[in-house]
């Protein structure tokens, strides 16, 4: 049977691996090999899927951490706060950024300067947020919570 720590590491690795492989491998390859419009639509679908994976993974990890550490000590662990922050970022992507970008794409946004500027602003914000989420995830995968490990041993 997998311990809570091992299960967390496995789920984190799968989740963060999905973030990195979609954002830094699949989407750039799509833009390198497909028409820009098709690649953009494909990228949107891939990012939607990875954000669903992010939401599910973060929820599972947070619930499991609540069971392991309890409600009274959950807030003491920096990894819990990072996972919560990444959950919020995924929610921002799914609830605000992606729907707004999709609605702009449905309009003739390339011909309209205001829509084009709005799309570019959203795109730059989403790139920055995705990079932050990727780096936070990498930090989670590469580090451990020393206090939690010490408490599990004792």
Overall description:
By secondary structure, this protein is mostly helical. It is built from 5 helices and no strands. Helix 1 (4-33) runs antiparallel to helix 2 (36-73) and helix 1 packs antiparallel against helix 4. The longest helix has 38 residues, at 36-73. The model has no long low-confidence stretch (mean pLDDT 90). It comes from Methylophaga marina. InterPro entries: TMEM205-like (IPR025423).
> What's the total count of β strands?
0
Strand share of the residues?
Answer: under 5%
Per DSSP, the total helix count is 5
Query: Which bin fits the share of residues in helices?
Result: over 70%
Counted up, domains total 1
How do the helices and strands follow one another from N- to C-terminus? Answer: HHHHH
Mean pLDDT: 90
Oligomerization state of this entry?
Answer: single chain
Terminal Cα separation, in Å? 20 Å
- The backbone outline, from C-alpha atoms, is elongated
Low-confidence stretches: none
User: What Rg do the Cα atoms give?
Assistant: 18 Å
What's the story with the biggest beta sheet? Answer: none
Supply the helix-strand structural class: mainly alpha
Organism: Methylophaga marina
Pfam families: DUF4149 (PF13664)
Keywords: Membrane, Transmembrane, Transmembrane helix
Subcellular location: Membrane
């Amino acid at each position: 049977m997998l311990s809570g720590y091992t299960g967390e590491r496995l789920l984190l690795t799968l989740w963060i691996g999905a973030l990195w492989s979609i954002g830094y491998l699949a989407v750039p390859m799509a833009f390198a090999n497909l028409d820009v419009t098709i690649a953009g639509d494909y990228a949107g679908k891939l990012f939607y899927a990875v954000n669903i994976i992010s939401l599910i993974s973060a929820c599972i990890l947070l619930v499991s951490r609540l069971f392991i550490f309890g409600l009274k000590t959950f807030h003491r662990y920096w990894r819990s706060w990072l996972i919560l922050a990444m959950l919020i970022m995924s929610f921002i992507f799914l609830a605000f950024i992606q729907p707004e970008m999709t609605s702009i794409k449905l309009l003739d946004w390339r011909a309209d300067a205001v829509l084009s500027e709005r799309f570019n602003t959203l795109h730059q914000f989403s790139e920055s947020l995705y990079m932050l989420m990727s780096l936070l995830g990498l930090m989670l995968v590469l580090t451990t919570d020393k206090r939690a490990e010490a408490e599990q041993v004792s």
